[in-house]
Amino acid sequence: MKIELGGTEQVNSKYAPLLESFAFKNGVQLKNRMVMAPMTNWSSNPDGTVTDDEVNYYARRSSGVGLVITACTYVTANGKGFHGEFGGDRDELIPSLKRLAAGIKEQGAKAILQIFHGGRQVPPELIPNGDVVSASSIPVEGVGKPVPRELSEQEVESIVRDFGEATRRAIEAGYDGVEIHGANGYLIQQFFSPHSNRREDRWGGSLEKRLTFPLAVVDEVKRVAAEHANGSFIVGYRFSPEEPETPGITMADTLVLIDELAKKELEYLHVSLHDFWSTPKRGVDDSRSRIEIIQERVGDQVPVIGVGSIYTPDDALKAFQTGVPLIALGRELIIDPDWVQKVAEGRETEIITEINKENQQQLVIPDPLWQAISYTWMVSGSSLKKKSSSLTWMNSFTVYIRHYKYFHQNELIRGCLHNQPIDLQFRQQAHKPDGAAQLYEELNHQI
Fold it and tell me: What does the alpha-carbon distance between residue 149 and residue 147 come to, in Å, rounded to a whole number?
């Protein structure tokens, strides 16, 4: 059955729930339940300003979804986590931030600026004096990783204020809200993690003390929003439910975190997952997906955004039926920017789920992002349905390792081309003794 939405548009009634409007508690309305997930694109200028290609890339994907969350922007100069990342650490960048916000909003979506600090994961060559910092002097696991300098208490307090200042700039630039990036192993998560936070002051130690920095950032962002914006400014928080390291964040830890976040009157919580249906590894005895557990725990207090390998309308509908009110698309919106429009027009059978190598211009994908995707093609081989030859594999594997830094802990690339993406866990082994050979075998098996 199809339902008319006005004019000649008709939507399959099966998918109509995905297109229903949604209202946050602060009164802001979204035109539908679909969100563009934040994804690194490596396409900004070296001075931290956005490029025309980057603005066009977002605009191309902003006319269907109700909400667009940008790639992360650094709040301090020593928090820059990627080559080609745009900045929010100084007032001179407000015009740049404004260009991106306008490019999104002119297409009809709400614009959310994701704010972050890379902490121990920043490339030393991108930050002043190569001064990598973190909660403690514990490096990321792996050979050759820089040992970060432990932040002083005064520096921690300063970074909290920097998150507030970035929020003020977002408000002045016209964004509808900010998303605090507390996921993917960056600084906020580093303070919450027992792996990276070995402090013995008020910023670390017990689980409760490891919550101090994330909650202080939330409080500061909320304070600045109340002072500089009207009541309709959106503040969300993104988190990763678990870490692979030992010690590391467990699902039990995350339940404590979200209990506290739910008290902060945030507009939403955003779960960072590669697979919507992934299940807990440690901390709880529950076979349900992490998102279902999170939704049950706090979903009646704060809206939850679900994400992870959602490609088709059926994927989205199945996820939506768990009770999660908002569904984010990441890689799929790179592959098919018209996903939402096709569903709204009853053309869901025309949705594309594998990227076309010839369509860079049509898809409005900036060169740096396209090059990163191309590296994935080199790893996967020309055919995604069968294994590549050994020679192709060895050549592409060399390129893959050479460009590892562009893939590290990034959910965007590893699933652009097919629905069974390469597991990050295997890629990380390239930095371990004999890891390259093991990685090659695992990748070859998966492809």
Answer: 7
